[in-house]
Specification:
Layout: H1 3-16, H2 18-57, E1 62-66, H3 77-84, E2 89-90, H4 91-100, E3 105-118, E4 124-133, H5 137-140, E5 145-148, H6 153-158, E6 162-165, H7 167-174, E7 183-186, E8 189-197, E9 202-203, E10 206-207, E11 211-215, E12 229-230, E13 232-237, H8 243-257, E14 269-272, H9 273-276, H10 278-316, H11 318-326, H12 331-367, H13 376-402, H14 406-411
Parallel strand pairs: 4-11, 6-8
Antiparallel strand pairs: 1-13, 1-14, 2-12, 3-4, 3-7, 3-13, 5-8, 6-11, 7-8, 9-10
Helix pairs in contact: 1-2, 1-12, 2-10, 2-12, 2-13, 4-8, 10-12, 10-13, 12-13
């Protein structure tokens, strides 16, 4: 039998025995659906984390020193206690480093906390991310201004009460009117709006536009942190190729600043965007390692079902097999026919699973903050697994069919 004829016969069997075919391919459908959905979500998260999250947390082409890690995954009580015992960073630390770093670049620093911001007409927003930073912060985070301007270094040095607000804050307080020159109150202190940032979207369902950024030396000094202290110091290199050099230089000078002996452990964290990605890399690796086992369970169940259905099919078509062999069909012809039919049956389940998997990933992306990106190789893998499971499961029934004696087969009712 020609391979295309075998495929046509298999499709006719699927159509003629819809319920049996449904249960036959169910295991393959479930396995491939889960495979495609998980890989699509993982790929989406990879693109999102590598393209956006690292830049938001640390800043691209930047090295950051912090008191505690920016990414914390279930630290022990002892580890948290150690972090809290570390000294805080100060304005003086940032200035001291700026005078000594030789790698071309720019120092920025910031502190952040959530709080209430009051606007005109008794409007109030709770849970606003309030950031106190120096003027270089905007460049370090590649933040764009859609209206007005960012505050300048002179305004930061004098601690002037000026503020740049996010798009959500601007929309809530000022709607269709210009916010420039208007006054809002941050932690009870009045600040004049001089700029509005371009929309940044959301991160895991949390708006990145619900924020305000004011000079670190303004009245927020001593409110977000103790007076003259900051959360982090960031150094953005002018040439990305010098990032590794900047990491070593910044860490070395900071150890000198803290008067740490060569044998003493570093009492601060040094991070880059690559280091910030390490937590997600570990999670995605665990998911990808666990995925074959979870998918394999469904595929093994599907293979067993397919093998049993094909054995029933061989029994039902014994006379057909005997007739074909009496007309000159060879054993390999019989085997290939049944293996092609089995592979087609399971491959059809793989196609259904691919469609369901893509649909499930899209649904999750619509109702949750998790992004979904289709990986072409996952579709090829899903289809290959579907066909491969069918061919493997049909091998034994095909061998049984090829071993039938044509005379005995023709005698069967």
């Amino acid at each position: 039998m020609h391979p295309f004829e075998a495929v046509r016969t298999a499709l006719e069997m699927i159509w003629a025995h819809k319920l049996r075919s449904f249960f036959t391919i169910l295991g393959t459908v479930v396995g491939v659906t889960f495979l495609i959905a998980v890989i699509t979500l993982i790929e989406g998260m990879n693109n999102y984390v590598e393209g956006e999250l690292a830049g938001m947390v640390v800043g691209m082409n930047s090295v950051v020193v912090r008191r505690t890690p920016s990414m914390q995954v279930n630290p022990s009580r002892e580890t948290r206690r150690l972090w809290q015992s570390r000294p805080r960073f100060t304005f003086d630390d940032a200035e001291w480093l700026s005078e000594r770093l030789e790698t071309p670049g720019e120092i920025s620093f910031s502190s952040s906390s959530q709080g209430r911001v009051d606007g005109p007409n008794s409007k109030t927003i709770d849970g606003v991310m309030i950031t106190a930073a120096n003027a270089a912060y905007f460049n370090a985070r590649d933040m764009k201004i859609s209206q007005g301007r960012a505050f300048q270094s002179q305004e930061d040095a004098r601690g002037l009460p000026v503020v740049v607000i996010g798009a959500d804050v601007a929309k809530t307080f000022f709607d269709n009117t210009s916010p420039l020159g208007k006054t809002i109150r941050i932690r009870g202190f009045p600040y004049q709006v001089i700029g509005v940032m371009e929309p940044q979207g959301s991160l895991f369902g949390f708006s990145l536009d619900n924020l305000v950024i004011a000079p670190a030396r303004s009245r927020l000094n001593g409110v977000i942190n103790t007076r003259n202290t900051i959360d982090q110091i960031s150094f953005k290199v002018a040439d990305p190729r010098q990032l590794i050099t900047a990491v070593a230089e910044l860490e070395g000078w900071m150890r000198v600043r803290r008067q740490l002996a060569p044998t003493e452990a570093t009492n601060f964290e040094v991070e880059t965007s690559e280091a910030a990605l390490s937590f997600w890399t570990r999670i995605s690796t665990i998911l990808l390692l666990a995925l074959p086992g979870l998918v394999g369970i469904s595929l093994v169940v599907g293979a067993v079902v397919i093998m049993n259905i094909m054995l029933v099919s061989v029994s039902d078509r014994t006379r057909e097999i005997g007739l074909r062999k009496s007309l000159g069909a060879r054993r390999r012809d019989i085997m290939s026919q049944f293996m092609i039919e089995s592979g087609t049956l399971s491959g059809f389940g793989g196609l259904v699973g691919i469609g369901l998997g893509l649909g499930l990933a899209a649904l999750v992306s619509m109702v949750s903050p998790m992004p979904a990106v289709v990986a072409p190789w996952s579709i090829v893998l899903g289809l290959g697994l579907g066909v491969g499971v069918g061919v493997a499961a049909g091998a034994y029934p095909a061998w049984r069919a090829s071993r039938l004696d044509p005379i005995e087969a023709l005698r069967k009712d």
